[in-house]
Structure formats: C-alpha cells, structure tokens
Amino acid sequence: NTQIVVLVLVIAAVLVAAAAGVALYRRSTLRRRFGPEYSRLADQMGPSAAERELRDRERRHADLDIRPIDPVSRERYRAAWTDLQTRFVDQPEQTVGAADALVTHLVAECGYPTSDYQEQMAQISVDHAGALAHYRTAHDIFRRHQSGQASTDELREALVHYRELVADLLGADPVSRRGEVPPVTTPPR
What we know:
Blueprint: H1 2-34, H2 36-45, H3 47-62, H4 71-88, H5 92-110, H6 117-146, H7 152-170
Helix pairs in contact: 1-2, 2-3, 3-6, 4-5, 4-7, 5-6, 5-7, 6-7
C-alpha cells in the first residue's frame, strides 16, 4: 500500500510539473510573438487574461485570408508614401489623414479587417506586434488632430509612426535612404 501511495504521489507531482512546464512554454511563446503587446495586455488585465486574449486573437487570425503584398502593389504603396512625405512640408494636416487612409488600404489589401479599429489592431498584432505600438500612437495622434488637439510636431511624429507600420507591412522601408523610390520590378512570367 505504501508503494502505491508513493507511486501515485510521484505521478501526480510529475503531472503537475508537466502542466507547469507547458504553461511556462505557452507564456514564453506568447511573450516572444507579441512582445510589447503581451506586456501591455498583461499590465492592463493580468497575465492569465492577457494570454487568453492573445490565444483568442491567434484563433480568429487563423480564419483570415492574410496575403503578402504583390511587388506591383508594394511599389505603388512606396510611391504613395514618398508623395505623402513630400506633401507633409506644405500640408501636414491633410497628409496625416492621407497616411491613415493609406495604412487602412494597405492592411485591407493584406487581408486584415478594417471595419472595427479594435479588431483590426488585435489581428495586426498577431503578425506585426513590433509595429503595433507605432500604429496605435499614430492613430491616436490622428484622432486628436481630427478634434483640433494635435500640434504640427505631433503630426510629424504620427507620420514617423505610420511609416514604421508601413515598412513592417511591406517588408522594407517605403522610401530609400536618399528619398528615391526603388524601381518597379515585374515578376517573372
């Protein structure tokens, strides 16, 4: 009888250790994948609730048809971004609105939802967690601008943050170091 009790206790201890190991692995995987978004949610709602939310995002994301931007569209977005940056000097107020619209079109073309901002942010976080804080900051400044509460310097800051998201979505900086748009390349047939 003593051996059976000891064996049951050892098996129970091994199962508890295995469950704890799985939980730690899941947590570290979510931290790596979502980075600052994991920390933000954990601070906001606690680690367990944040992990449930992030796993739920991954499940909803699996139902989306996320696709890479084709080379022709990528070049079109790069050219549009270069134009936005050039126009900012003379028209900062209009340019930030145009940048927000460009980002909305880009994320829609990638396959992310655009009808609900919170869901859009949640789904973008699955693939682009590193750029999500940039998007959140830029969009917040844009919203403040719409109510007349953002300075020109803040609008410039918003444009810089939008650029980070655009670069992440396109897979490269939308403008070369010298401000030139890379040549359009056509895919081989």
